[in-house]
Amino acid sequence: MSEQAFTVDGMHCDKCAGNIEAGLIRLDAVRQVSADATTRLVHVRFDDRRLSADDIAAHLERLGFTASASEAP
């Protein structure tokens, strides 16, 4: 298991955060998602044998957001 934080542009409200959480948790390898519109951070816990951080960023882009890996806690 790995954990990765992403800075997400375009996440302006709680509805956006909810859409991100719902969209990512549907991925089989994702175990936990927490999105915060105030900080624009998304924390994802996932099976890194089946999914990469780049895959998650690409999925966020398909959801309509721009994401980059973050060093945030």
From TrEMBL:
SUPFAM superfamilies: HMA, heavy metal-associated domain. Residues 2-68 form the HMA domain. It holds the Pfam family HMA. InterPro entries: HMA_dom, HMA_dom_sf. One of its GO terms (molecular function) is metal ion binding. This is Copper chaperone. It comes from Nocardiopsis gilva YIM 90087.
